[in-house]
Write a structure and sequence with these properties.
Length: 209
Amino acid sequence: MNQIQLHKKGFYNLPKLPYKYSDLEPFISKKQLQLHYEKHHKTYVKSANSILENLDKARIEDTEIDVKCKLKALSFNVAGHVLHSLFWENLTPDRKLGKIPNGTIGHYLIKEFGSFERFKKEFTQTALSVEGSGWATLAYCKQTSRPIIMQIEKHNMYVYPMFRILLVLDVWEHAYYLDYKNERGKYINAFWNNINWGIIDKRIEEILA
């Protein structure tokens, strides 16, 4: 195996959190956040990179691989990494930012949903009704110029292709079990106090630019 060829290619990296482990309390405890970030997110990064290395090795050595199995696992782990990276960014310890959004995102939410409260209700219902493990996300469709809610199961099922994601909420039990046990609703309600609407506004403005 040609190690030099392998290491010339890019791999995924665990992003640095934009705050300390204790900064999101009481929404997320220090212990919960540290476990989520260091164990779960880090595992998705390591697993995705391991699959890429296996694919590289098979191509260099011209050996057979189970393509269906590898690509399914790669999709799961890469999507887990991407969604977690977005999740950390759209949280903030500054609870002043977790209020009703203004700016471009506020305009589009009111235009689409009629009011922020209606958006909050639909997004909350989306998060509550995810079957098993998954995500509630707000995305943007450039073809229709509409923000659209996606309900993602696992990390990669029922994703609308090419829709840019603006806001995500992780509702896997590993995201909240230490703090809320099986009471997903309490975790979701607390989430609304810690959203960084500034980064959400930046994301939609980049799409519209």
